[in-house]
Design goal:
Layout: E1 2-7, H1 12-24, H2 36-44, E2 48-54, E3 57-66, E4 70-78, H3 87-102, E5 105-108, H4 115-123
Parallel strand pairs: 4-5
Antiparallel strand pairs: 1-2, 2-3, 3-4
């Protein structure tokens, strides 16, 4: 049975489930500082995590935050054994729905070599920002 859950408050157990999925799909990275406290803080400030469960097992997630101007789509992932079932599309539909509720533009980052994700995002109308490079300073 498929279930979609919206999370606005994090528990240790839930964080372990989703962070394990992030690690499995290659988007979990200690350098990103996506700690329990960091994720919880975003949820307390208008963020949410959408989780797809298949038979009570978390198989897909998308973490949404915003800066009151744009909805930021983070860590969209689907368990490798559950890909190509429409779960990515369902997660993105929920993300876009939330952006519309807040009347915000939606923004995300995706690796240029992630062909499947790029195809999905383009099918939802996302475009590359020509001339821009993503930069970050993590050692603060």
């Amino acid at each position: 049975m498929i279930k979609v859950s919206v999370v606005t408050e994090l528990t240790d157990i839930l964080y372990k489930q989703i962070s394990n999925l992030w690690i499995l799909t290659g988007i979990g990275n200690p350098a990103r500082s996506d700690t329990f406290d960091a994720v919880s803080k975003t949820l307390k400030n208008g963020g949410k995590i959408i989780i797809i469960y298949e038979d009570e097992i978390a198989v897909g997630t998308v973490w949404l935050t915003h800066d009151f101007r744009r909805l930021l789509v983070h860590h969209m992932s689907v368990h490798p054994e559950h890909q190509n079932k429409g779960y990515g599309k369902l997660l993105m539909q929920e993300a876009i729905k939330y952006a519309k509720e807040l009347k915000l533009q939606a923004k995300l980052e995706v690796h240029k070599d992630n062909k499947a994700a790029n195809k999905l995002y383009k099918s939802f109308g996302f475009e590359t920002l020509d001339g821009y490079e993503v930069m970050i300073k993590r050692d603060i």
